[in-house]
């Protein structure tokens, strides 16, 4: 993934918000999550070269560069999520509606490597909502307005 710029991986709910992992080209990133409703936390994370290679392998196995825009189970009572991949050639993003099989390897990587890094990580003071990443990916024209009103 020579042209990789960043990836965002999220799971949660359109109503309650999303636990989000965002990783950049330089192997740094952050996670936004909530342990309690309306109590959001943001932590910085960094990956080793080996972990970044493993992330690329998971993204390639899931064929993220070819992912469709929507995967749905047709049942609207479960978890939702999204994934966004930015590369120098453009971006791909996908909404996941109670159907996560297309990104199984990427979610397994996050659960095995990234989320364990969160335990004991330093919480940032920056205020962030669990919907902010959703608006950044799917409604960038509304993001600045939301940030100003939350300001």
Provide the fold topology.
Elements: E1 4-13, E2 17-24, E3 28-36, E4 39-46, H1 49-61, E5 70-72, E6 80-87, E7 90-97, H2 104-118, H3 132-138, H4 140-150
Parallel strand pairs: 5-7
Antiparallel strand pairs: 1-2, 1-6, 2-3, 3-4, 6-7
Helix pairs in contact: 1-2, 3-4
Molecular structure report:
There is one protein chain. Helix 1 (49-61) packs antiparallel against helix 2 (104-118) and helix 3 runs antiparallel to helix 4 (140-150). The radius of gyration is 15 Å and the shape is globular. The protein has a single domain, classed as Mago nashi protein (2-Layer Sandwich). It is an alpha+beta fold and 151 residues long. A seven-stranded mixed beta sheet has the order 4-3-2-1-6-7-5, sandwiched between helices. Helices cover 30% and strands 36% of the residues.
Count of discrete structural domains: 1
Over all CA atoms, what is the radius of gyration? 15 Å
Largest sheet: 7 strands, mixed
Mean pLDDT metric: 82
CATH class: Alpha Beta
Low-confidence stretches: 146-151
What share of the residues lie within helices? 25-40%
Counting DSSP E segments of at least 2 residues, the number of strands comes to 7
CATH structural architecture: 2-Layer Sandwich
Structural class: alpha+beta
Shape, please? globular
Distance between the termini: 36 Å
Percent of residues in beta strands: 35-45%
Neighbour order of strands in the largest sheet: 4-3-2-1-6-7-5
Work out the oligomeric state of the chains in this entry: single chain
Number of helices: 4
Within the CATH hierarchy, at the fold level, what is the topology?
A: Mago nashi protein
Q: What is the element string, with H for helices and E for strands?
A: EEEEHEEEHHH
């Amino acid at each position: 993934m020579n042209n990789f710029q960043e990836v965002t991986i999220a799971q949660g709910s359109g109503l309650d918000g999303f636990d989000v992992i965002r990783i950049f080209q330089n192997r740094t990133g952050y996670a936004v999550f909530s342990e309690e409703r309306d109590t959001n936390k943001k932590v910085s994370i960094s990956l080793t070269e080996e972990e970044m290679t493993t992330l690329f392998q998971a993204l390639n196995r899931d064929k993220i560069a070819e992912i469709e825009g929507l995967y749905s189970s047709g049942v609207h009572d479960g978890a939702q999520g999204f994934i966004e991949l930015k590369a120098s050639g453009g971006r791909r993003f996908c909404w996941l509606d109670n159907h996560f099989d297309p990104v199984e390897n990427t979610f397994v990587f996050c659960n095995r490597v990234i989320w364990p890094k969160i335990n004991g990580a330093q919480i940032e003071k920056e205020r962030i909502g669990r919907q902010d990443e959703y608006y950044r990916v799917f409604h960038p024209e509304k993001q600045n307005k939301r940030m100003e009103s939350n300001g």
